[in-house]
Amino acid sequence: MSAPDPTRQFRLALRLAGRELRGGLSGFRILIACLALGVAAIAGVGSVRSAIEAGLADEGAAMLGGDAEMSLTYRFATAEERDWIAARSSAMSEIADFRSMASVGDDRTLTQIKAVDDAYPLVGTIGLSPDIPLEVALDGRDGTPGVVMEPVLIDRLGLSPGDMVRLGGEDFVLMAALEREPDANASGFSLGPRSILRRRALEGTALLAPGTLFDSRYRVLLPPATDLEALEQGARARFADSGLRWRDSRNGAPGIAAFVERLGAFLILVGLSGMAVGGVGVSAAIRSYLAGKVQVIATLRTLGAERRVIFLTYFLQIGALAGAGIAIGLILGAVIPLLLAPLIAARLPIPADFGIYPRALAEAALYGGLTALIFTLWPLARVQNIRAAALFRDEGRSSRLPPRPFALAILGLVALLVAVATLLSASARLTLWTAVGIGAALLLLALAAVGIGWLARRLRPLSRGRAPLHWALAAISGPRNEAAAVVLSLGLGLSVLAAIGQIDGNMRRAIQQDLPDRAPSYFVVDIQPDQIGPLLDRAEPDPGVSRVERAPMLRGVITAINGLPAREVGGDHWVLRGDRGVSYADALPDDTVLTAGSWWGAGYDGPPQISFAAEEAAEIGLELGDHLTVNVLGRDIEAEVTSFREVDFSTAGMGFILLMNQSALEGAPHSWLATIYATPDAEAPLMRDLGRAFPNVTAIRVRDAIDRVTELLEGIAAATSYGALATLLTGFLVLIGAALSGERDRVYEAAVLKTLGATRGQILRSLALRSGLLGAGAGMIALAAGITGGWAVCHFVFETGYTVIWSNALAIVLGGLLANLLAGLAFAWRPLAARPAQVLRGRE
Prior knowledge:
It is a multi-pass membrane protein. With 844 residues, this protein is α+β, with helices and mostly antiparallel strands.
């Protein structure tokens, strides 16, 4: 017997697949729709993210305010450092950036001040109202220096151009409203609206006194042939011990770029969850289609068709249709962002260059193709088990599990999909945990579907006498039930939505409800050493003030650990990425709990010692006895780690990663930080008194900071909710597919029931009960999965407390019940209208 010819088999399968395709899209519309929607969601998110990244790259110099920027904390560059920068640039601008208080009479509010020189801006133009040159505005009037402010700050203080305003106790005249600031995004997140004034107007004032909190920034224009990478390495080598931070036009707004990258990665993971839901629909659609092809397949087997030919026939057919679904999704994912570009751009605070981005589309196509393969192989693997005897017996239902080679191939494809998502994602850890979560949810839902069928069988004897309920339970527990498709599709979509709802609700609760109860009313910064005593004398006796905490405040950069570069030892930990707050203490502060080591003791005057935050030390890998090099105001201080202590940042109170002994730092110029806990009634009078007595001091109201963070969360929540709703829409499509695939069985069932005397009302109630019970079951499982997933993200990712948000949870359960009920009832009219004689005769 000659061996089969693979080429002949493939040609035969291709010809048979072509004939099958001539039958149209019947049975495959849901497959195409699920793939198209999932691919479109991923392609759309990827296209928008690519548009923003392209906009950031194209406008990098404009957003940064120059080709490159070097910044320092707490100090300005020395003459030698300035000469090094100037020698390598064609133009340079020096900026000081800090917070202060703007006041008119007793009204005081926080503002972010940018003190500029005559060269500012190097790139872009300032937009003012009235339209006057910036240099004219900053010259002021009648010997009083000028200032320009954002409109929201002007409105808040009730000002008009020409009015006087005090900034940190110094008089300025408001000359214009700041309508456009070309480098606004380069400064990152700020707590107050912007004010711009001239740098030399601050000479000799308390606004930039030694120890005050400010950043100095040196922006430069470079010759056209400059190698940015080489210049960056040279700057880092030259200023290795100075605490310098570098940015350039390759990434003019790194904070925004990182945020966009991570948010885009998260949304793509939500999209992959939608693809998993769509995959369930793909698998259900293929099973339903192949169930109707049992007679055709059995006939082909009777005529001598090999198993390989049968498999290839339907693999090629379904592959072509899946390719069509992916292509439709790619077109939608590319075109919809272009059509919505004006609306999206209007809501973005950053530039976006919308266009067709092949990489984003290729990623979406890859995800779609792998998902289609994973969920197609399982039902297709069972096709080759159909024998010729199926012409005479109902053998269309073979083993639920695929043969071992197919099972191994499916597992390999799942591993490949996870690996691709991990490599392409901005957060490998988040991707892996999301994949684990999706897999666990699918397993839980599959077990739940089996459990629902088992429970229905156990409850059937108890439902005798209640005909509609008995029929519904019989249908759910029967061999051809649709419980698996309904529970998997609806349950996974609702699980994603439930988890996002729980995470969002807990973050909002923590910020808006829990945090204000534990957080101070105000952070007070830039307190000079001779002001801390009088400030305490005013605040502590106030009956509305429950507590005042204070500490000396410096900024430092950990540059080395045991003589090695810090980031080589501790990795990319957030503590090592830039400068951090540093303080000192003599005696052990109240409420400080040491977890290891010993305190240096009051009056200690030996070599510098450090007490480090215990949790962060463990993450970095620090041990007692390690030596850290900390750069403070350009001076390296090497100190031994002698203790670890608990630091709780969740209260928004005072907490320092790094504490040193008093003699190590008290000689350095520094200011003080205070936190004031006061009742709402006491806040305003206290701040007025402190503002009059200490005009240079900046008070940051915690509630205002919370409001800014809440605004940011609202945008994130909206974006993630859109992604979750797309997943839920895919799930609803799968429900429709499940209802369509089971419609033939329901028509036959209704015909039998009518023959036995059932009324239309009883049949309708039975169908409604079936849909409602499956929807409620899927909703309950989704509720458990969503609560568990929300807890895991809050606990392990955000490291916050967790409370079940029951309003969101109950909405999920009701949503699952109603969604499945509506989908079931929408396809009830044909079973109700069926004529028993015609249906039963057709089954003979």
